Amino acid sequence: MKQLTSYEVAQIQFDKAAKLMNLKKGLQEYLKKPNRELVVNFPVKMDNGEIQLFTGYRVQHNDNRGPFKGGVRYHPNVDIDEVRALASWMTWKCAVVNIPFGGAKGGVTCDPSKLSLAELERMTRRYITEIRPIIGPARDIPAPDVNTNEQTMAWMMDTYSMEEGYSIPDVVTGKPICCGGSLGRREATGRGVMFATKEACLQNKMKLEKCTVAVQGFGNVGSIAAQLIQAEGAKIVAVSDASGGIYNPKGIDVLKAQEHVAKQKSLLGFPGHNKELKLLELPVDILIPAALENQITGDNMKNIKAKIIVEGANGPTTPEADEYLTKKGVFIVPDILANAGGVVVSYFEWVQNIQKLFWDEKEVNDRLQHIIHRAYGEVAKIAAEKKTDMRTAAFVLAIGRVAEATLVRGIFP
């Protein structure tokens, strides 16, 4: 069976919820499509003096509820379809947690591991210059994503500010603290996954401290989620990254794994490392896919043994696998709810930048927990009322909020 693109997956998820809502066809077609798509091809001078051409993207899906918001990723597989899907998921994610942003996403097709720090900086500054006409603190606010980080955001903020002639910290989020970043932002997505996992355990009458957990993806999201869930008493028995994974039924010391990755840049060489580990198929209570899209598919869905799946990544489960696992009784907390912690605290950072007033970390974390708890309850209520799964319920909630804003604002002119 042909594997669906991420954008096709996003469209199927949307259509399922729209059908349940009896959304009018014209409105349905409008909300599905991005408002704007920008593709840029730009040259970068490499360290050896040669010129290399890069392709970058910025897709702005919908801003009827507020400015566009979404990360920028650097990865060899970045293409327009992936960015379209991620932009649409951002729209629904912001609406699910009820923050006043719309969805956008950006990316550059590249392998950042093969670029020096100086080359990454030049590429980042050129990319942000190319998309500068359509971004801004009241228009579209980029943030970190796969293979981008606080340093990337500092370069972006500096480039935009230099061209404007004064410092504009609120043009991006996920910045270093010294450049106007927010306390708690780096851990926010992983912390949100932890909060969502606790809510799922409560709903399914499972005690988190008695659960075994496997985490696919040991980057910022997966490693922080694993650390925080372990701190709640759960047993992290498996973690993995692009190099392979570690499985220990007695439990893994997540902090030691984090220290290893900080030094070696991957899990390779950590005791028990296995290049062939099929982490997704391990016998665990909770599975957290926190890597890339299309990881749980028709090829491996019948081998999934977890009782609960909490989607730390965007789009890790295909519609085919989603339907099969739901019928099988696996409880899935969808990405647009489970990993929304990052955009929630990005919103907090943006608000703090505008107000020129910063919060302490406890206030950030407390506000995040409140929002995830509220959103989870709203989604669970819709799922119960409409007798549907959590993903469809989350889309119903999100689409309803965006549709309402669209209809109240009206169609211009």
What does this structure look like?
- It is a single chain.
- The chain has 413 residues and is an alpha/beta fold.
- Among the domains are: 35-170, Leucine Dehydrogenase, chain A, domain 1 (Rossmann fold, 3-Layer(aba) Sandwich); 188-338, NAD(P)-binding Rossmann-like Domain (Rossmann fold), CATH 3.40.50.
- Helices cover 45% and strands 17% of the residues.
- The chain contains 13 helices and 12 strands.
- It has helices at residues 6-21, 25-32, 80-96, 117-131, 150-164, 188-203, 220-231, 254-264, 319-328, 335-338, 341-355, 361-386, 390-409; strands at residues 36-45, 51-62, 68-75, 102-109, 140-144, 212-216, 235-241, 244-247, 273-274, 286-289, 308-310, 331-333.
- The strands form 2 sheets. The chain has a 7-stranded mixed β-sheet with strand order 9-8-7-6-10-11-12, with helices on both faces. A 5-stranded mixed β-sheet has the order 1-2-4-3-5.
- The protein is globular, with a radius of gyration of 20 Å.
- The chain starts with 5 loop residues before the first helix and ends with a helix.
- The mean pLDDT is 96.
CATH class of the domain at 188-338: Alpha Beta
Distance between the termini: 45 Å
The residue fraction in helices comes out at: 40-55%
CATH architecture of the domain at 188-338: 3-Layer(aba) Sandwich
Q: Within the largest sheet, what's the order of strands? A: 9-8-7-6-10-11-12
- Count helical runs: 13
CATH-level-4 superfamily name of the domain at 188-338 = NAD(P)-binding Rossmann-like Domain
Alpha-beta content class: alpha/beta
CATH topology-level fold name of the domain at 188-338: Rossmann fold
The description of the largest β-sheet is:
7 strands, mixed
Mean pLDDT over the residues: 96
Q: What fraction of residues sit in β-strands?
A: 15-25%
Low-pLDDT sequence parts: none
Radius of gyration: 20 Å
SS elements, strand count: 12
